[in-house]
Prior knowledge:
Distance between the termini: 21 Å
CATH superfamily of the largest domain: PurM-like C-terminal domain
Number of strands: 12
CATH architecture of the largest domain: Alpha-Beta Complex
Number of domains: 2
Amino acid sequence: MAVFPLGKLPPDVLADLLARYPISDPRVIVGPRPGEDASVLDVGADTYLVAKSDPITFATEEIGWYAVNVNANDIATTGGQPAWFMAVLLLPEGKTNRALVDKIYDQIAGACDALGATLIGGHTEITYGIDRPIIAGTMLGFVEKDRLVHTGSVQPGDSVIVTKGVPIEATAIIASEKADELRQTLPDEFVKRCAGYLHSPGISVVKDARIAMRSGRVHAMHDPTEGGLATALWEMADASQKQLVVDPSPAVLTDGKVLCEAFGLNPLGAIASGALLMAVHPDDSAAVIAALAGENIAAFEIGRVQDASPAVIDAATGHLITRPARDEIARLFE
């Protein structure tokens, strides 16, 4: 039997698994579905409770900061506000000391403070069989009931918009993990700038989502993580059962393209935290883009939504955009 590659489970396998365990609890407003970023629960108040869990397995240098922000991003894609964070921290045997633990917890606390969230618990242990720290984070938040959006709430005719550009996270990872190799052919200042993409333009989309939601009719938001923008577009198409006709090239950052090409990677399939993928009412797309620009956040209108069978179509060729089998960044760690 063939084994699965690094990264997310194949989408058909995940869909099959989730179909085996249907949810009958009426309090679950958005449950586990391929492409959805977070679960949404009705706990009887004026707001919904939003819950998200996500691990950090690739990045190590700022793993605590990563863990908080990638989970907060998925709360933000519902239109919600991240509030409470829990972390399960697994540390490698024979490599863990007090300085490492303090460093990771300082990163978690600093990221929570920046977002107005609170670390409320979790678990920490030193375990065997791993060679680097791993964090599985859970973020809880809330969203007003009349403000809820999710990946599957795309509407026909919507404009497809991407903030900041892609692949921000992959650019930072490549520059950090392959710095010595890159410096043999690229300027040191370039490599340092790319490594700094983690903070500038940054991997958080909480602000992006907040600005967009108050500036126009945002029908759906999605966080492009593993598998990059190409996977996120397919996930949005599948979750909404709509067709996306797009030209993603304007959203590809030059620095990221250079680094991906240096290792033969497709920038559209590389982990892309830091970008926010949105479906916006076409009459409001210009206002949303202008509001983001007013806060120095770039945004690119890359296509439209059609009421057709779920697919992602290249606007220039009319062909399907390839759905990555796994994240391109995984190839760096093999």
